[in-house]
Write a structure and sequence with these properties.
Number of strands: 6
Helix content: 55-70%
Largest sheet: 3 strands, antiparallel
Strand content: under 5%
CATH topology of the largest domain: Serine Threonine Protein Phosphatase 5, Tetratricopeptide repeat
CATH architecture of the largest domain: Alpha Horseshoe
Radius of gyration: 29 Å
Shape: globular
Structural class: mainly alpha
C-alpha cells in the first residue's frame, strides 16, 4: 500500500494515492488532528482525554483506545493481526503518529518556505508559489475552537503571512513587479497593518510606473497605523516614501542595469507586437529564439520551453515549408549534459518531425547547414535509446559541421556525438576528448554555453578515471562561467559531482548528507529525466560500496532504475537473467554493477557472464562515476570478484 498523506492546511484530511480515507466520526478526526499537532511526539492518553472532552466521560480511556484502533485499521489496512503498528504507534504512556516529513502538507510548506530563503529570486518565487498553493483554508479549520490547536494555528498562520510577503519580494527581485501587485493588495485588505506588505506593495507599484498609487498606499498605511494603533510608520516606510518622491535610482529593479533592461524589454516587445503581423513567419522564428533563451534558465522556464517547442514545430509544419521547419527545429541548439530525455514521448515526436523534414528538404549543398542541425537534433533527442539511428545521425552531423567549418554547427553536432557516446562501457576517454574540444571551441568563439558543457563533460569523464583534481578544476570553471552568465542549472550538476567525490573518497555519512542536499537542488529544476530515481540510486550505491545489505524501498520513485533495484532484493534468478542490457546512457556501468550484485546475491552464476562482458571494457575506471553523480567503486573490483570460471 502507498503512504498516507495528511492535510491540515484547511480541514484535516488523510488520503492514499489521491483517495480520501474514511475517518469515521469527529472524535476519530480529533485524535488524528491532535497527534498531527504533536509533530511525531508522543501524546499521553491523559492529555488526549483532557483535549477531547471538557468533562471526560466514564470509560474515556477505553474510548480513546477504540478511536486509535479504528484509525489504525484505516491507516494500515494490510497490517497483519497483532503485528505492531508502524504509523500510529503506541509509545510509553500514549500514542504518536510517525508520519514522514513529506507526508503532511504543513510540514512540506514549512520546509519549502525555509528552502526558498536561500534560492535565487526566480526559483524562490516558484517554490513559494507551490508552497502557498497547499493551503485550502485556515489551518486545522475544523478544530478552530479547540485550545490545543490555538498555538499551532497561530504559528502556521504567521508563517503563511510571511510567505506571501516573501513571494512578493522574490517576484520583485526577479523583475516581476506587476505580478506582485494583486496578491499584495488582497493581503493588505485582510492585514492592513503589516508594514512589510505596505513597503512591498508601494515598491511594486512604483516599479510598474504607478508613482501616485505607490504614495497613496504609504499614506493610507500611515493613517491606519496612527488612527487605529497609535503608531508611527517605521523608518523603512518613511525612507521609501522619500525615495519615491525623489524617484531615487535605488528603487529601480535589482542589479541597476537590470531595471533598465526590463523596461527596454517591455518597450521592444510592445513595438514588435505592433509592427509584426500575427501569424507571420518572422514571428514564429523569433519565438523559437525566445524558447531557446528560456530553456537555459531552468525550472519553470525550462519546462515552458520544452512544452512550447513542440507547438512551434507543429506550427512550422503547417506552412508546408521544409526549410522553415528545418530552421525552427534546428534553432533549439540548447546544450544537453544528461543522456536521458526529460520527456521521451516529446523527444520521439521531435525526432519524427526532424526525419520528415530531412526527407522533404530539397537536395543540394545549400541546405547542408540546416541538414546538419536536423541530424544533430535527431542525435540529441534519441539519447538513451538503443538504436543505430542515433549514432549514425551524430556521425553525419559531425562530418557536415567539420566540412562547413562552422563553430556553432560543430558545437551542436558534438553535443549529439556526446549523447551517443554511451552505447557501451569504457567510453569515458572518448567523452573526455569531446569535452576538451567543446571547451576549446567555446572559449575561442564565445559559445559560452558549449564551453560550460565541455567542462561538465570533462568533470564526468575525469571522475570515471578517478582524476578528481582535474574534475575539480573543471567544476570550478563551469561554476565561474555559470555565475557570470546566469546559467542556474550548472550548479545542479557541480553539486552532484561534489557529492560523488565525497562518496568516492571514503566518507559515506558525509556523502549521504551531500547527496540529500544535491537532491534538493533538483526539486523544481525542470529536469525529471535527471531527477527520477537518482537519490535512491545514489544512496543504494553508497550502501553497496560500504558492504552493507541493500535496502530497497519499493515505495520510492526509482524511475528508470526500478527493475535493477528490485532484482537486487528479489529471490528469483529468472528476474535477474531477464534484465536487459542497460540503456545507453551515463548510468550504464552502474546498472551493470547492480546486475552483478543481484546475481551474486542469488548465487546465480548463469546471469554473471553477460553482465561481466558488458562491464569489462570499463576496466581501470570507477564504476558509475562517469555519470558525474554516483559511484560503485573500481570496476576491477567487480570484475575480480567473478571468478576465473566465468571468464
Amino acid at each position: 500500500m502507498g503512504r498516507v498523506a495528511f492535510g491540515v492546511l484547511g480541514p484535516v484530511t488523510a488520503e492514499r494515492g489521491g483517495t480520501a480515507l474514511a475517518l469515521k466520526g469527529p472524535r476519530h478526526r480529533a485524535v488524528l488532528a491532535r497527534l498531527l499537532v504533536a509533530r511525531r511526539r508522543t501524546v499521553p492518553v491523559g492529555l488526549l482525554i483532557d483535549d477531547l472532552w471538557p468533562e471526560p466521560p466514564t470509560g474515556a480511556v477505553g474510548a480513546v483506545r477504540t478511536f486509535v484502533g479504528d484509525l489504525r485499521r484505516v491507516l494500515e489496512p494490510d497490517r497483519p493481526p497483532r503485528a505492531p503498528a508502524r504509523l500510529l504507534v503506541t509509545e510509553g504512556p500514549g500514542y504518536a503518529l510517525r508520519a514522514e516529513p513529506d507526508d503532511v502538507d504543513a510540514w512540506r510548506f514549512e520546509a519549502a518556505v525555509g528552502a526558498a530563503a536561500g534560492l535565487p529570486p526566480e526559483r524562490a518565487a516558484e517554490r513559494l508559489g507551490a508552497a502557498l498553493a497547499l493551503w485550502r483554508g485556515p489551518a486545522y479549520a475544523d478544530f478552530a475552537d479547540a485550545d490545543w490547536t490555538r498555538a499551532e494555528r497561530a504559528r502556521l498562520g504567521e508563517l503563511r503571512l510571511g510567505a506571501v510577503e516573501q513571494l512578493a519580494a522574490a517576484r520583485l527581485g526577479a523583475g516581476r513587479a506587476a505580478e506582485a501587485v494583486p496578491d499584495l493588495q488582497a493581503h493588505l485588505t485582510e492585514h492592513p497593518w503589516r508594514e512589510e506588505a505596505l513597503r512591498l506593495l508601494a515598491l511594486a507599484l512604483y516599479r510598474t510606473g504607478r508613482q501616485p498609487d505607490a504614495l497613496a498606499v504609504l499614506r493610507r498605511g500611515r493613517g491606519e497605523l496612527a488612527g487605529r494603533l497609535g503608531l508611527d510608520p517605521g523608518p523603512e516606510l518613511s525612507r521609501l516614501e522619500a525615495d519615491i518622491l525623489a524617484r531615487h535610482p535605488r528603487l529601480d529593479a535589482p542589479g541597476g542595469p537590470a531595471g533598465t533592461a526590463a523596461r527596454l524589454w517591455e518597450r521592444t516587445a510592445a513595438a514588435y507586437d505592433r509592427t509584426v503581423a500575427t501569424g507571420a513567419r518572422a514571428r514564429l522564428e523569433s519565438t523559437v529564439g525566445l524558447i531557446r533563451s528560456l530553456a537555459v534558465t531552468g525550472g519553470s522556464g525550462l519546462r515552458a520551453a520544452q512544452e512550447t517547442r513542440l507547438a512551434a514545430v507543429a506550427a512550422a509544419e503547417e506552412y508546408g515549408d521544409a526549410e522553415l521547419t528545418a530552421r525552427i527545429i534546428g534553432a533549439y541548439d540548447v546544450p544537453a549534459i544528461w543522456t536521458r530525455s526529460d520527456d521521451p514521448e516529446a523527444s520521439a515526436r521531435l525526432v519524427a518531425a526532424a526525419e520528415r523534414t530531412l526527407a522533404a528538404l530539397p537536395s543540394g549543398s545549400a541546405r547542408d547547414a540546416v541538414r546538419c542541425r536536423l541530424l544533430a537534433t535527431v542525435a540529441v533527442e534519441t539519447r538513451g535509446v538503443r538504436s543505430a539511428r542515433g549514432p549514425r545521425a551524430a556521425a553525419e552531423a559531425e562530418a557536415l559541421a567539420r566540412r562547413l567549418d562552422d563553430p556553432g554547427l560543430l558545437a551542436f553536432a558534438l553535443n549529439g556525438v556526446f549523447m551517443q557516446s554511451c552505447t557501451r562501457a569504457g567510453l569515458a576517454g572518448r567523452r573526455d576528448r569531446i569535452g576538451a574540444e567543446l571547451v576549446g571551441l567555446g572559449a575561442r568563439t564565445g559559445l559560452v554555453t558549449y564551453e560550460v558543457l565541455g567542462h561538465l563533460v570533462r568533470v564526468q569523464a575525469l571522475s570515471a578515471r578517478g582524476d578528481f583534481g582535474g574534475a575539480d578544476a573543471h567544476a570550478e570553471a563551469a561554476d565561474r562561467l555559470a555565475d557570470r552568465h546566469e546559467l542556474s542549472l550548472v550548479g545542479v550538476f557541480t553539486e552532484w559531482y561534489r557529492a560523488l567525490r565525497t562518496a568516492a573518497t571514503g566518507a559515506p555519512e558525509r556523502a549521504e548528507s551531500a547527496y540529500r542536499a544535491a537532491a534538493g537542488r533538483l526539486d523544481g529544476a525542470g529536469m525529471p529525466g535527471v531527477e527520477r530515481g537518482l537519490l535512491p540510486l545514489a544512496l543504494l550505491c553508497l550502501r553497496l560500496v560500504a558492504g552493507a545489505d541493500p535496502e530497497v524501498d519499493v515505495e520510492a520513485d526509482w524511475g528508470p532504475y526500478r527493475a535493477w533495484a528490485e532484482a537486487l532484493v528479489g529471490r528469483d534468478g529468472e528476474v535477474v537473467r531477464a534484465l536487459p542490457e542497460p540503456p545507453p546512457d551515463l548510468m550504464y556501468e552502474a546498472l551493470c554493477c547492480l546486475q552483478i550484485a543481484a546475481a551474486r546475491r542469488l548465487g546465480d552464476r548463469a546471469a554473471l557472464p553477460r553482465a561481466y562482458g558488458w562491464l569489462r571494457p570499463a576496466s581501470g575506471e570507477l564504476a558509475g562515476a562517469g555519470s558525474g553523480m554516483v559511484t560503485l567503486g573500481p570496476v576491477d573490483d567487480w570484475l575480480a570478484g567473478m571468478g576465473s570460471g566465468v571468464r
